[in-house]
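so my prof wants the structure for this chain in the tokens format not the other one, which i didnt know existed until like an hour ago. anyway here's the sequence
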Amino acid sequence: MTDEDTTPAEEKAPSKRRQNRIAAMQFLYSMEMNPPNDMKTAVRLFFENQDKPREYYAFGEELVWGCVNNLAEVDQVIQNHALNWSFSRIAKVDLAILRLAIHELLHRRDIPPIVTINEAIDLSKDFSGPEARRFVNGILDKLKGELQRPLRTAAE
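here's what i got, hopefully its the right format
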């Protein structure tokens, strides 16, 4: 296929993993804005109502459950690294992006840390304000320095 054979939409279509991260970030954002009474039902309904079948979003659903199950730990990491920022002042979309990325950095050894950080920065560019990229990158860069594993390759 040549460049002439692709349409602009095909060139810009996000990868399946990116679409899954976007969906996971959106769920985490909605969870923060309106905490569900029944998390299991909320997650199921959210992923059933996406553009593609629920099975397509299996990776995103794994990320959501990982964040939810490790929320206290992830939030503590954010608080430890967000110097001069009170937790309540962090924009909710930035919080969702950070939660997603920090969960990946701490618990998804199959994903290279550099990939996780780049994905988080891209999400902040697409879904948050102009300063979010630097804020998200700053926190994740500090955490990256503490990781005891290769940065450019999966650990497992």
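also thought this was worth mentioning. The two ends are 34 Å apart (CA to CA).
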